[in-house]
Design a protein that fits this description.
single chain, alpha/beta, Rossmann fold
């Protein structure tokens, strides 16, 4: 099943980024881009307009990772999946406040990631239909 949904992967470890990109292609998603540098993420989100951002929580330094993801989520109305090493209180609070903001622990199961991607995109599409 091919889909027009675009997904941006922000991952500093190129092997993981390539693996996720390969999985996205196998699952039928239009793989829009991989950002290997944190400075590329905002401009790629703005230019490519992906439906979903999958971002490693260690992509930014310290607490900036969560804050950056929250800012992109709000500014561009983009769904976000954070790949996390551990759940922090800040992340728990962000997830309570925001819709279409998810996390999955690393190492992640590919089937779990696929299910979470589907859920995030379904949620975003329902939100669009309600607004129309």
């Amino acid at each position: 099943m091919k889909t027009r949904e675009k997904i941006l992967v922000a991952e500093s470890e190129s092997i993981i980024a390539m693996d996720i990109g390969h999985q996205l292609s196998e699952w039928g998603f239009k793989h829009s881009e991989v950002a290997l540098s944190r400075s590329d993420v905002p401009s790629l989100v703005k230019r490519k307009k992906p439906n979903l951002l999958i971002m490693d929580n260690d992509f930014y330094d310290g607490d900036q990772d969560i804050q950056s993801a929250v800012e992109l989520h709000k500014k561009y109305d983009i769904s976000v999946i954070l790949l996390i090493d551990w759940m922090t209180e800040e992340l728990k609070q962000a997830m309570k406040k925001l819709k279409s903001f998810y996390c999955i622990p690393k190492p992640f199961d590919r089937d779990e990631l696929h299910g979470l991607i589907e859920e995030a995109l379904r949620s975003k599409n329902k939100k669009k239909k309600k607004a129309a």
